[in-house]
Amino acid sequence: MTEGGAGRPIQAVLFTCAMNAIRSPMAEALARHYFGRSVYVQSAGVRRGELDPFAVAALDEIGIDASRHKPRSLDELEENEGLNFDLIITLSPEAHHKVLDMTRSIAADVEYWPMPDPSVMHGTRDQKLDAYRQVRDALQAKIQARLARPVSGAPGV
Question: N or C, fewer C-beta in 10 Å, the chain?
Answer without folding.
Answer: C
